Amino acid sequence: MAWLDALRGFAALCVVFSHLSEHDLQGLRGPVYDVFDPGLYGVFVFFLVSGYIVPASLERKGSIRTFWLSRVFRLFPLFLVAIGAVFLLHPFGYTTYTSDAQYPAATALAHAFMLNDFLGVSPLINVMWTLSYEMVFYLLITALFTVGA
């Protein structure tokens, strides 16, 4: 599956370029975006690769519990580091975040389950919207696996 890793690596670089070119690489942004949207491409490729790998992973493991444990240990550590970094760097003006201060408990729960987009809660970090879609995909794959489809 080395080709999938290479594809994911290229997709990650496309997303990084998309974010960097908003502020730092503006001279390159126009010519590249005249040809294609690297951020959209990168996210699309990640979702396609996940659509191939995730069901195979669940089938290979054969256990919903093992599958979800691997997902939790794969996603949550970096998720928590990113949120912690934003809270640490925000007072110094290096980052911004959105807060749904009116409903702090709902905000915390929506983020704890990475379902903020589907529960109508603004993501703390704007670029984390993809996690909601990934989590819904995992839930759907789990449901299909459970019913034997």
Helices and strands in order:
Layout: H1 2-20, H2 26-35, H3 38-61, H4 64-89, H5 104-112, H6 129-146
Task: Summarize the structure in words.
Helices cover 71% and strands 0% of the residues. With 149 residues, it is mainly alpha-helical. The longest helix has 26 residues. It is globular and about 50 Å long. The two termini are 24 Å apart. The mean pLDDT is 86.
- Which structural class do you get from the secondary structure elements? mainly alpha
Characterize the biggest β-sheet. none
CA(first)-CA(last) distance: 24 Å
| Beta content | under 5%
Mean pLDDT across every amino acid position: 86
Q: Given the structure, what is the number of helices?
A: 6
- The H-and-E topology, N to C, reads as HHHHHH
Number of strands: 0
List low-confidence stretches: none
Radius of gyration: 17 Å
- Judging from the principal axes of the Cα atoms, what is the shape? globular
Helix content: over 70%
Summarize the structure.
This protein has 149 residues and is mainly alpha-helical. The chain has helices at residues 2-20, 26-35, 38-61, 64-89, 104-112, 129-146. The longest helix has 26 residues, at 64-89.
Keywords:
mainly alpha; 149 residues; globular; 6 helices
